[in-house]
Amino acid sequence: ESVYLNGEWLAPEAAKVSVFDRGFLFADGIYEVVPVYHGHPFLLEDHLARLERSLAALEIANPGQAFWLDLIQQLLTRNHSQDALVYIQVTRGAEAKRSHLPQGPLQPTIFASVSAMPVHWDVPTPVKVTLLDDIRWLRCDIKSISLLGNIMLKQQAQACGALEPLLHRNGLVTEGASSNYFAVKDGAIYTAPTDHLILPGITRMWVLKLAKELAIPVHEQAFSVADLAQLDELFLTSSSREVQPIGQIDDIIIGQGGCGEITERLVHAFHASKRQLSAQ
Ligand code: PLP
After folding, report:
1. What's the domain range around 100?
2. Looking at the structure, do residues 105 and 207 belong to the same domain, yes or no?
3. pLDDT, tens digit, for every residue of 102-141?
4. Domain tally, the chain
5. For residues 117 and 126, what is the distance between their CA atoms, to the nearest angstrom?
6. Is the keyword Cell division assigned to this protein (predicted)?
7. CATH number of the domain encompassing residue 88
8. What end-to-end distance do the CA atoms of the chain give, in Å?
9. Distance, CA 251 to ligand 1 centroid (Å)?
10. What is the mean pLDDT of the chain?
């Protein structure tokens, strides 16, 4: 197994960064996760566009598209990766002493590694989620490595026996700790719009496109906490979970508690599209 750190390919245990790295001191950095199927990065252009937006938001220098393409290709080749998740992290870099304000432009710290993609079943088993107050900051659109809120919420969810928190702000569902939510009501799909309150999930965007192709009405409109008990179906999306049906929110059973019909159609459409794109 080999990881990339600042121009070098190393064994994971040999990759070391300075304690003065701003990623370590301030979580001053961003990351990206790209799914890979049969050795092909899935929706790579969209992931790179989001990576570039995250860097621009923090005013961290961007080595450019050609650099990222080459890095990912080398990472996959060196690790013989077939079905995998590529992790890329960029921090603002290390400086001589700790200071909130960066002291001039720094050399960013770039790290990349690859891990195994979880197995996906034909139709995934429905999971339970738990409703929690969205305590995170107001720039959730940036894929920041500062994930304290997400981690605390994920721990609270785990304590309730739930896979993910279902986060809400001002009565509306925002997203999960590492996923986007979709509700189905009367044959139509609802999901929060891409503003500062959610991460614009690449899987979210792809599922919206698939739904439109299947002529399922979609509304990029947040659904409310008050309506949760009346939903017909609920699912979440992410690069590692793909399309994950939800059978239960705390004590509320969604539909029959299984995988709903529209969710199942989207699970199948998702599998078909990833097979198609990775065969090219
Ligand atoms: N929302 C948050 C907060 C996330 O961390 C993630 C991914 O980890 C997502 C949504 C889903 O994004 P994607 O579909 O690009 O993996």
Report:
1. 3-116
2. no
3. 988 899 999 999 999 998 888 899 999 999 999 999 999 9
4. 2
5. 19
6. no
7. 3.30.470.10
8. 27
9. 25
10. 97
